[in-house]
Amino acid sequence: MGEESHETSVALTILAHICGWIYFTAWTISFYPQLISNYHAKSTEGLSITFAVFNLIGFIALAQYDIIRYGVQLRYDLPQAVEIQDVCFAVHAAVLCIICCLQFIHYDSGWRERVTRRTWIMSVVLIVAGMAHLLLVEMGVIPLTHYPDMDNSSYLTSAWSFTNFCGALKLGITLFKYLPQIVLNFERQMTNGLAIWTFNLDCVGGIFSLIQNGVESINHRNSAYITGNLPKVGIGLVGLTYNAIILGQHYYLYREQNFEAKRIGGEDTMSGKLTTGDDGVDCLL
């Protein structure tokens, strides 16, 4: 059941570790601008509570996925598709998302009114679905996690697992969470008000996250270093795609409008001031 023995390159091993810590640092730092901004302004205005809620659910799911998969890898000597950096990042991100949601409660007395019925319903459905999956694991219907080399014959089915659900949930949230920001930028024809370094760092993290898995796969001659952590790969690819669009809007499409808005000091008085709409459009600062 263990990983096949291959002679690995010391240089590639070091490169993989460097890429891992670069992506971890970039993605980790990208969470702080919004928290700091909320603290200084003593307000959460401009940030969608819908984004904050689903970001929290997504990173809790990712943290569970990474912790379980990493533990199983160590126990059964499987390819390290989930690295220690993945675990640290996911847990840290979940904690920061909790802090962000607490800021809504502390700074915004009307936060309940800002949570749409759609958000409440979707949140409850996702939480119940997660609890249902854990119940199925306890009942022996599905395994906690699944690897091709693992013997899950004691379960009714091994084609789906709790970690499959967690990974799919996080990837699904990532697929739609950037869309409101892209639409908002288009409607305003500018990106003023965005903490653009959030997207720069998100882009850097995505690039080095994918490079790390690719290097590990080459170094060990084993594609499981990629296929064994598809949520991370998917999140990296989806994030890069959306970040490229937002960065293109900021640095190319709306460059002149951004410059003009700053020149006249209209960032706070423009008609397109960042607000949260009924559909939970978020600014992703």
Automatic annotation (TrEMBL):
**Mind telling me what this protein is named?**
Cystinosin
One Pfam entry for this protein is PQ-loop
Judging by the UniProt lineage, the source's domain of life is Eukaryota
What cellular-component terms does GO give this entry? Answer: endomembrane system; vacuolar membrane
Is the keyword Transport assigned to this protein? yes
**First-listed, main subcellular location of the protein, grouped into a coarse class:** membrane
Q: Does the keyword GTP-binding apply?
A: no
Q: How does it sit in the membrane?
A: Multi-pass membrane protein
What GO annotations for molecular function exist for this entry? L-cystine transmembrane transporter activity
Transmembrane regions: 12-35, 47-67, 87-107, 119-142, 154-173, 194-213, 233-254
Xref: InterPro entries: LC_transporter, PQ-loop_rpt
Where does it reside?
A: Endomembrane system
Keywords for this entry? Membrane, Repeat, Transmembrane, Transmembrane helix, Transport
